Amino acid sequence: MIRKQLNESVAYLQSKGFDNPEIGIVLGTGLGKLADQIEDPIEAHYNHIPFFPLATVEFHSGKLIYGTLEGKKAVVMQGRFHLYEGYDFMDITYPIRVMHQLGIKKLFISNAAGAINLDYKEGDLMLIEDHINLQGGSPLAFKGVGQFGDRFTDMSEPYDVPMRQTLSKIAEQEEITLHRGVYVSVVGPQLETKAEYRMLKIIGADAVGMSTVPEVIVANHLNVPIIAVSVITDECNPDNLKPADIQRILKTAEAAEPKMVKLFRELIKTL
């Protein structure tokens, strides 16, 4: 069934002009402006793509954008899906499977995250080197998963090492602070308690969010190399925890976004 649905989704996008993109990009909360830099863009709204889920978060746009970025064909996912919206893992990762079938060779992911590591400050960036999945499930736990790749997908190095090394060098050259750390993904949508922040620090997390890990698991299953960057939007200090201000988090993400865009564009130049 999923194979048939994917074929229909891909056929629709190809009919719109989505032709063999090399790079797939997933844009996180408050991080949609990279899409504005796509040359000769072709847009496909999620509600027009057969079998595509619909973004329900008010600050996620809900469209795929195809075009050229730094001379490479790219497809950008402006608006992603989350467990906290009521979607299942198949819904959340369906766009990754679609982009893979369209032809992407690399996947770039961004997200907004809270700092567990208090050396990180609001507006900093973190290169994700590893992750912890606390979302209570797997996007590979379904019948027939073997038709897409190895059921027992290796996750010893889920984020591509050469791209990570290159991005670190670019950040140094551009004088952009780029921490390297572990991202933990939780269900949400509620923010964490003080005790939960303490627990996350104990288990080795540097930043926490509500996305990314399902997409990364599926991309690894499909053998698509991944680079992922978190924009640190708030500092989660359990000893001085303030009530969450979502509008402030969005403004912080928006202010830091040009740094992330710069890094992604410079990395694309090297590919």
Write the layout of secondary structure elements.
Elements: H1 2-16, E1 23-27, E2 39-45, E3 63-69, E4 72-78, H2 89-102, E5 106-115, E6 125-133, H3 161-174, E7 178-185, H4 194-202, E8 207-209, H5 213-221, E9 226-235, H6 246-270
Parallel strand pairs: 1-4, 1-5, 5-9, 6-7, 7-8
Antiparallel strand pairs: 2-3, 3-4, 5-8, 6-9
Helix pairs in contact: 1-2, 2-5, 3-6
CATH class: Alpha Beta
Distance between the termini: 35 Å
- Give the uncertain stretches in residue-range form: none
| Count of extended strands | 9
Order of helices and strands: HEEEEHEEHEHEHEH
SS element count, helices: 6
Largest sheet: 5 strands, mixed, barrel
Q: What fold name stands as the CATH topology? A: Rossmann fold
Kindly provide the radius of gyration, computed on alpha-carbon positions and rounded to a whole number of angstroms: 18 Å
Q: What is the general shape?
A: globular
Biggest sheet, strands in spatial order? 5-8-7-6-9
CATH H level, superfamily name: Nucleoside phosphorylase domain
CATH architecture type: 3-Layer(aba) Sandwich
Q: Can you tell me the number of structural domains?
A: 1
Mean pLDDT, to the nearest integer, reads: 93
Structural class by SSE content: alpha/beta
What is the oligomer described by this structure? single chain
Strand content: 15-25%
